[in-house]
Design goal:
single chain; mainly beta; 3-stranded antiparallel beta sheet; 3 strands; elongated; binds zinc ion
Length: 71
Amino acid sequence: MSAVAEVLSTVAPDSNPRGSGLPTCPVCADSMVAAEASAYLTDNVISYLWTCDTCGYGFVTKHALKRFACN
Ligand SMILES: [Zn+2]
């Protein structure tokens, strides 16, 4: 009769299997290879700046990072 309060937070699980985690250009659908830059929005949210080599279009993606430890 023990009440265990355990909260499992699942933040934006990566639904993509390995090998397809890179974004594609919304303009020409070309695959992005590497982010131009990255910046932390909060402690566990990071944004990446992508620039398409094919058409030059730039866009930003946001990613939720997993917490490594509970402080
Ligand atoms: Zn493009």
